[in-house]
Amino acid sequence: MAEWSWVAYTVLEVLIAVACCLGNALVVCAVCIGIRDSLREPTFCFLISLAVADFLVGVAAVPLAVLLDGWVSVTPDLCLLLSCVVLVLTQASVLSLLAIAVDRYFRLHTPIRYKALATQRHSWMAVSLCWTLSCLLGFTPLFGWHNYSSSPSESTSTSSPSFDSPPCTFLSVISLPFMVYFNFLGCVLAPLLVMSFLYTRIFWSLQGRLKESCPQAQPSLLSEKKLACSLALILILFAGCWIPLHLMNCLLLFHGPEAVTQGTLYTGILLSHTNSAVNPVVYAYRIPKIKQAYSQIWRRFITNINSDHGDKQVHRVRTGSRANHSEMRGSGGKTTP
Questions:
Q1: Residues 238, 48, 57, CA angle at the centre, nearest 5°?
Q2: CA distance 90 to 239
């Protein structure tokens, strides 16, 4: 890739990382501070989990994507560990989306049992389970499915300082068959198909209930349908941003390196990272509670700025008046006989 292309890619990655951090930090503050009661609802607990994963994409995944492109020379074991962090965060997003879809499905189809099970404690236990599974699935290459061998003979020959190690790149340690057969087909595509089925059932059921329900029940059903549409939109954006990169991996596996140009591959990486920066915007425009919390945080921020500015002006006025008063007293003392 040309030098100017690499500079443009790096600048875009930095902008995406900043947007991921700021936007998703705002989401966490909005839910945890602005609408604390919503934490009793499993959906918002899973949205917090998704926002944390997107925040960590900006903090860790994007910087690692830039570094793991031949910029650092570390041991293969450390290179593999750093590469797996990206897989863990992606898997956490997938499982959080799956948990949201399952939650909305059971909320609609088994309301009585759902009320008994949908406690805050159970919700955070489910979030913990999602992250535990994400770590297990994302760190799978550490258990042997990778691109290098760590035999005793090689370990003795590679015990030299880190500057003798080859440049660390993602595909130098992560196996393409692993990325295609295990990560894409098993850990990404299969959950996406399950989620698509669940949302299809949800919309089909809501449409039927809206036709058969009385006017008093329709506002609640319409609110449920609007939230389901917003969550489905988040799912569609995730699929649209991540599937192109996985399809490129398939082309690389079956047709070799010449099947995908370097520029196209970097575009796919940028698109996948952009998903984490776009989600907070979707929350702001599509989920009323989070939109209201955004407005409250923004009003508090403006109020604090105005109050600080007012305090500074008052302090300046008081300081000026005291100075004038002291000058008048000094001048009066000089004119007195």
A1: 55
A2: 12
> Measured between alpha carbons, how far is 102 from 106 in angstroms, rounded to an integer?
6
More confident residue, 140 or 4: 140
What average pLDDT score do residues 145-168 get? 56
User: DSSP readout, 255-315?
Assistant: H-GGGS-HHHHHHHHHHHHHHHHHHHHHHHHH-HHHHHHHHHHHHHHHHHHHHHHHHHHHH
Q: State the Cα–Cα distance between residues 309 and 59, nearest whole angstrom.
A: 33
Contacts of 176 (CB under 8 A, 6+ apart): 249, 252, 253
pLDDT for 24 beyond 90: yes
Q: Is the pLDDT of residue 337 over 80?
A: no
Q: Give the helix/strand (H/E) hosting 168.
A: strand 167-169
Share of the chain above pLDDT 90, in %: 47
**CB proximity list for 123: less than 8 A, separation 6 or greater:** 41, 42, 45, 46
Say how far apart CA 237 and CA 239 lie, in whole Å. Answer: 5
**Residue written as token pair 């900006």:** 58
Phi, psi for 166 (deg, rounded to 5): -70, 160
Contact (Cβ atoms closer than 8 angstroms) between residue 98 and residue 195: yes
Contact 92, 130 (CB under 8 A): yes
